[in-house]
């Protein structure tokens, strides 16, 4: 009876999860924590030395068909897309010779996120399509915490996590990445002198995502008041959406070691 288990699972539509082990190894070796873990830096030279391993992983991502993808669980799909976005972003930086900023790539009319330099789920693809169409555009996958997981290769961006996202740990990984980013006083903090909550431009660019999830940006951030350093007495203002929020400048310099 045991010998029939695997064939029966296959007949029932069981789909083996994608293996992100090689990407996990690359991240573990070439991404280092900074400032007590709230940020990271990437050793792009090291990634370049391991280019064969990166290429192998990217090829495996591109080989996945839509039919295979649709058989996976929700968390398997989301982990796959987050890892794909991050891995292809690293590849883009290497392809372009490690520019000072990802925004140096492309032209006035077509930036790095519009560049079709890879294939995913059977078609030519851009980074914008992965983030905005495949993830944000899919209600079944959308979670505002993805904004703290996808990495744009910039210092101002939430940290590139030094491990791959996986379905079995996804919720915990997303929550940890969120809390670490919001704990980074260089990018998010309460300014007691001005009585203002100063946060990343991410909360301006994607305000609608946070409003849909919690009614307002302030309400979305309320559970993270401790990480942000908001005093207890000011949290009532957050709850009533009465606390002034200011968006900090975004640092687009490359997140390199």
Structure classification: mainly alpha
Low-confidence segments, given as residue ranges, are: 1-14
Major sheet: size, sense and barrel closure? 3 strands, mixed
Q: Count of helical segments?
A: 13
Number of distinct beta strands: 7
In N-to-C order, the SSE pattern is HHEEHHHHEEHHEEHHHHHE
The main sheet orders its strands as: 5-6-7
> Per DSSP, what share of the residues sits in E-state strands of 2 or more residues?
5-15%
Report how far the terminal alpha carbons are from each other. 54 Å
The proportion of residues forming helix, as a percent range, comes to 40-55%
Overall radius of gyration: 20 Å
Shape: globular
Q: Average pLDDT across residues?
A: 93
Describe it:
Helix content is 45%, strand content 9%. By secondary structure, the chain is mostly helical. Strands 5-6-7 form a three-stranded mixed β-sheet. It has a two-stranded antiparallel sheet with strand order 1-2. Strands 3-4 form a two-stranded antiparallel sheet. A hairpin with a 4-residue loop joins strand 1 and strand 2. The termini are far apart. The N terminus is likely disordered.
